[in-house]
Description:
With 221 residues, this protein is an alpha+beta fold. The chain has two domains: 2-68, CATH 2.40.50.140; 73-211, de novo design (two linked rop proteins), CATH 1.20.1440. 33% of the residues lie in helices and 23% in strands. The chain contains five helices and seven strands; from the N terminus they run E-E-E-E-E-H-H-H-E-E-H-H. The chain has helices at residues 76-90, 98-114, 118-129, 170-183, 197-211, and strands at residues 2-11, 15-22, 25-31, 46-52, 60-68, 150-154, 159-162. The protein has a five-stranded antiparallel beta sheet. Helix 2 packs antiparallel against helix 3 (118-129) and helix 3 runs parallel beside helix 5. The longest helix is centred in the middle third of the chain and has 17 residues, at 98-114. The protein is elongated. It starts with a strand and ends in a 10-residue tail after the last helix. Bound molecules: zinc ion. Zinc ion is lined by residues 142, 144-145, 147, 161-162, 164-165. Residues 142, 144-145, 147, 161-162, 164-165 line the site of zinc ion (ZN).
Amino acid sequence: MEGIVLKTIDYKEKSKLVYLYTPQGILSVKALDATKTKLGFVTTLNQVEFEMTSGKLPTVTEYSLKKSFYSIYENLTKVGVLAPILDVIFHLEEGVNHSRIYVFLIQTLNELLTTEDSYQVLSIFLVKMLAVFGIKPELKKCVRCSKTNLVDFSMLEGGALCDSCSIYHEKNYQLLYDFQQLYFAKNYQALTLKLSYQALLDEIYQYYAIHANFKLKDYYL
Ligand SMILES: [Zn+2]
């Protein structure tokens, strides 16, 4: 079994309860005598391979460290960005494709380790994850009439509007453009966007609030 440590809480004497994200979803396992022998297993953001007992609350028996992402914690901007990313993972519903999301999360953390633009990593992650919540915005055709001469973006209707359905609105047009760039970005390629990341993240947060009824954690400390 493989997973990435999301958080740990104290569990009885010297032991910890460890929450991991795995290709099968979130899993909680006990790590006995965690302070001595399971240090690498109870460190947040460690990617580990492990064996565990069976049962309702399994105990980890063996583990090996695959990769540590801990140095993300050395940069305050990155620590801030991590909060909504992990928040999204904790909000995943049952039945989603965890194995794909797991790969995407690892890719996102790898990018966050080295990037100089943490807000771009966060924006791409959040916009791409909208599809997982079943609230992907319609970005290729008008949400009302399916025409493709797009000039506007409707936050409430969740997608683009064409020139027959809306008058041109500069800020919303920029928003539509940026949503398209983020959603269709290949991996974490560098993007040239029209709005600032701060303005864009405000909109993305609003989109989650309206369509998923989900108030994401702040990305600034
Ligand atoms: Zn239309």
